[in-house]
Amino acid sequence: MTSCIIVLSWKVLWTIGLAVLFGLALHGWGGDHLFPGRYTGYLMPWLLVILLPAALWALLMRQWPLATLLGVSLGIILYAYAPLLLPRHNVVHASSDALKVMSFNVWSKNSSPERIAGAVAEHEPDILLLQEIMPSQFEGLARSLDEISGLTGEIWNKIYHPELLQAVVSRYPLQSQWSRRNKGKVQAVRAQAPFGTVMIFNVHPSWGNWARRDRQLSDLLREDILPCEFPVILGGDFNSPEQSEIFKLLSRHLHNAHNAAGQGFGFTFPKALHMKSRLIPFFPLVRIDHIFFSDHFTALDTATAQEAYGSDHLPVITRLAFHPDRFKKIGGTDE
Question: Is the pLDDT score of 331 beyond 70?
Answer without folding.
Answer: no
